[in-house]
Design a protein that fits this description.
By secondary structure, the chain is α+β, with helices and mostly antiparallel strands. It has helices spanning 12-21, 54-69, 100-116, 137-142, and strands spanning 2-6, 28-35, 43-50, 74-80, 82-84, 89-97, 120-126, 129-132. It has one domain: Aldehyde Oxidoreductase, domain 3. The chain is built from four helices and eight strands; from the N terminus they run E-H-E-E-H-E-E-E-H-E-E-H.
C-alpha cells in the first residue's frame, strides 16, 4: 500500500502498469485519475496546500479502512500539491481486490473521502483573481453512502 503526496507530476500509465504488475492474487484492478478541471475556460492555475506528515497520515488511515473493509490486496493513492494547470493530473487512486465489486467500491470510497475530507486547501486563480475553493454540498452528500 502506497500513499504519496508530491509536487512532481506522475505518469498515469507507468503508475497503473506498476500497480497492476504488483497486484498478485487480485482478480480486479480499478484506477481513477482526477484532472484539474477548468469549467468555463477561465482557470489559469490551482494551488494546493497541505501540512506534510498530517496529510499523509490522514490518507493512510482511510486507505487502511478501505483495505480492511473490502479485503483489498493493494492500494495506491497519489495526490499532488503545489501549482497545477488545467488538464494536469491532480490525483490517482488504484485498488486491487479478488473481485471487481470490492475494487470499484473501495476506489469510490477513497475518491469521495479525498474530495471532501482529505486535509488539502485549494486556491483557484483566473482572470478575476484568486479564490479559495469551498466544499460542495454534493461532495459532502456523496459520503453518506459509506
Amino acid at each position: 500500500m502506497r500513499v504519496s503526496v508530491q509536487a512532481q507530476p506522475f505518469d498515469i500509465g507507468a503508475e497503473t502498469a506498476a500497480f497492476a504488475a504488483g497486484a498478485g492474487g487480485a482478480g480486479a484492478v480499478v484506477t481513477f485519475t482526477g484532472l484539474v478541471r477548468d469549467e468555463g475556460g477561465t482557470l489559469s492555475s490551482m494551488e494546493i496546500e497541505h501540512y506534510p506528515g498530517m496529510t499523509e497520515r490522514a490518507i493512510r488511515a482511510y486507505v487502511e479502512k478501505a483495505a480492511a473493509r473490502w479485503s483489498l490486496t493493494d492500494v495506491l493513492v497519489i495526490h499532488r500539491h503545489g501549482t497545477l494547470r488545467p488538464g494536469e493530473p491532480i490525483m490517482m487512486v488504484a485498488t486491487a481486490a479478488r473481485h471487481r465489486a470490492a475494487a470499484f467500491e473501495a476506489a469510490e470510497f477513497l475518491m469521495d473521502w479525498l474530495k471532501s475530507r482529505a486535509p488539502f486547501w485549494k486556491k483557484e486563480t483566473g482572470a478575476d483573481g484568486a479564490v479559495w475553493v469551498a466544499a460542495k454540498d454534493s461532495d459532502e452528500d456523496a459520503l453518506t453512502r459509506w
